[in-house]
Amino acid sequence: MTNRVVITGYGVVSAIGNSPEEFWNNLKAGKTGIGPITHFDAEATGISVAAEVKEFPFDKYFQKKDARRMDTFSLYAVYAALDAMEMSGITEENTNFDRLGCIMASGIGGLEQSQKNSQAIVAKGPRKGVAPLYVPLAIANMATGNVALRTGARGVSRAEVTACAAGANSIGSAFREIKHGYADAMIAGGAEAAICELGIAGFANLTALTKETDPEKACIPFDKNRSGFVMGEGSGVLILESLEHAQARGANILAEIVGYGNTNDAFHMTTPSGVGAENAIKLALEEAGASPADVDYVNAHGTSTHANEETESKAIHNVIGDKAYVSSTKALHGHALGATGAIEAVATVQALLNQYAPVNAGTTELDEGMTINVVLGEGKPADINLALSQDFGFGGHNAVLAFKKWTGE
Q: What is d(CA 270, CA 128) in angstroms, rounded to the nearest whole number?
């Protein structure tokens, strides 16, 4: 026997909003959060724009000491998780916290901590240069660790570190834990804060980032003039529960997660083959008990790079065809690496709730061979019953999540 798995809460920190309402309003309006880099002087990197979190409401959940004990990616994770918990209404009175788990993702962890401490060790030596808390601030599992500490989640606990697929992988893994009876509820998502000199320079020297200076033209997924991705940051968190558990405590059910596809290309370190993506889509649909024709909306990985979109568009076309609406919301909130799949999962759930397909912002002319139904110009009211959210990462990782509109049945 397996359990059906539903979503009862979500939280988000992003360049287009730090609350579900603000995030959705800007997503629906197609208002980009991309702008000039302010976290540091980026001139020497040759990159001028990023999708930075703005006006982070630190005081809502934190005190000054928390900023010394947590890197920014952990702060984002805890904030989004606490908002998601509040929305869900889960408490120790209605839930056994020994069966409340937490799986959070991060592609890099505390990268800025590594940069600062590496610089300091050169200047001051290993004894004086490296901060005592460097390791617990920087390691990627501390998003999970800090969320568990703040929420009291004592069940299944681990971190997903699969580059840009990590956020989706964490949600898929949490889904399976509940489906197969290892947990009643899970906190799942991803967090990233890598807009620092080391992060921007690393991706820039890999020629992965756009050098475009106009925020409105910097990230244009599937457009013939796309020139690289825009670094983002933030966190997305979902609260997943078994249907039985959610109904027993009278929870407000937002959507159902019905499938998860997870594969590897086993092809190239950074260039996708497309075959793994196709297989991941097929696996998600198979687990959902759905056919390709059932898919109404796809939140695409859509990084605004040629390497990704040439293969992703073919994968979507080959498996699903050209009926489903397709958009990449990265044009608005940037590419948040290990957090991006979780932020996009929030966007996909909101698309289901609002029956609206967000715009693929900035794109004006599809590249040749893009035989998919990309949402251009503005978002569209749409009858969305089944939606996919898909993300692919360096190392060949592919993750596809299938979400279904909740109808009460």
A: 37
Where among 248, 268, 294 does a domain terminate? 248
Predicted pLDDT at 31: 97
Residue 387's DSSP bridge partners are 297, 403
Which pLDDT tens digit goes with each residue over 107-126? 999 999 999 999 999 999 99
- Per DSSP (E only), the strands in 300-396 are 325-327, 356-357, 373-374, 380-381, 386-393
How many whole angstroms separate alpha carbon 55 and alpha carbon 99? 35
- Check: CB of residue 343 under 8 Å from CB of residue 12: yes
The backbone region for 146, taken as left when phi is positive above 0, alpha when psi lies in -120 to 50, beta otherwise, is: alpha
What is the signed CA dihedral for 226, 227, 230, 236, rounded to 10 degrees? 50
Tell me the CATH number at 326.
Answer: 3.40.47.10
Report the alpha-carbon angle 314-294-176, nearest 5. 85
Both 63 and 166 in a single domain?
Answer: yes
State the catalytic residue, choosing from 102, 164, 196, 219. Answer: 164
Are the C-beta atoms of residues 36 and 268 closer than 8 Å to each other?
no
Last residue of a domain, one of 196, 218, 248: 248
Instruction: Identify whether the C-beta of residue 343 lies closer than 8 Å to the C-beta of residue 238.
Output: no
Q: For residue 254, tell me if it sits in a domain.
A: no
Tell me, yes or no, if the pTM score tops 0.70: yes
| C-alpha pair distances (Å), 186 with each of 192, 283, 330 | 20, 22, 26
Whether 255 is in a domain gets the answer no
190 in the same domain as 57: yes
- Is residue 369 predicted with pLDDT exceeding 90? no
- Using alpha carbons, select from 333, 332, 325 the residue that is nearest to residue 380: 325
d(CA 67, CA 321): 48
Active site residue 196: no
